[in-house]
């Protein structure tokens, strides 16, 4: 169950206190296993009460390796509660991984009301933003250095019908992460944007029914994504960055926000406001085309 600590990330993560949401399954569960294997202490957070038995199993192998909290991220104050529990139990927090997420149950335009829209946005977008806010306030108040990792998705870069709500929430997570760049070096906030991953999250959703070609093209193994997550946590050169994870061995650093800021700033500095506005429009179009090309290359 516990990964071997023989890894280039082991030294950087040993004795770190890490909060992981969505810890009961999929990438979150695998990440927890890797972190515990590296000697970290991990707070397991999930709406699934199985995190209690998971924590007990880890602690049977190494005393005080983990603690747990059952939390519905839609609950007001829930994020602050589990953060405070982690500090109380472990003494401090070093890293927060906002990994929990859900997918919309059906296309936005086939739903009778906004219930599903609100649920997806609260868990996929508001919770990572609130989790980051709580973490950053803590790091600033205590003077500690810290890392926050947000789980995005290729869906935030590749618009697909049926996934309007999910994709929009993930696109916003990537934008939010880029907006946190200036918090470094005290707090590094990064994100990962994986292609579709072989987890119960995808296999148990309606995505495969809508897009059966995904299975034919192939989906990523969770291990591939977790390796990128570990890099985002440990690579000190990354701040406000998103690692795009496809089928290759190299994680591509997303640069669209850097390019946007540079080009718009240069045009505004030259007094070319209309040119800057026009550039933003053309860049957004090229971003969409480039993201679609990522998917086409996989096929």
From TrEMBL:
Cited SUPFAM superfamilies: NAD(P)-binding Rossmann-fold domains
One Pfam family linked to the record: adh_short
GO cellular component assignments: cytoplasm
GO molecular function list: oxidoreductase activity, acting on the CH-OH group of donors, NAD or NADP as acceptor
Domain of life of the organism encoding this protein: Eukaryota
Keywords assigned by UniProt, alphabetized: Oxidoreductase
Entry similarity comment: Belongs to the short-chain dehydrogenases/reductases (SDR) family.
Protein's name according to its UniProt entry: Uncharacterized protein
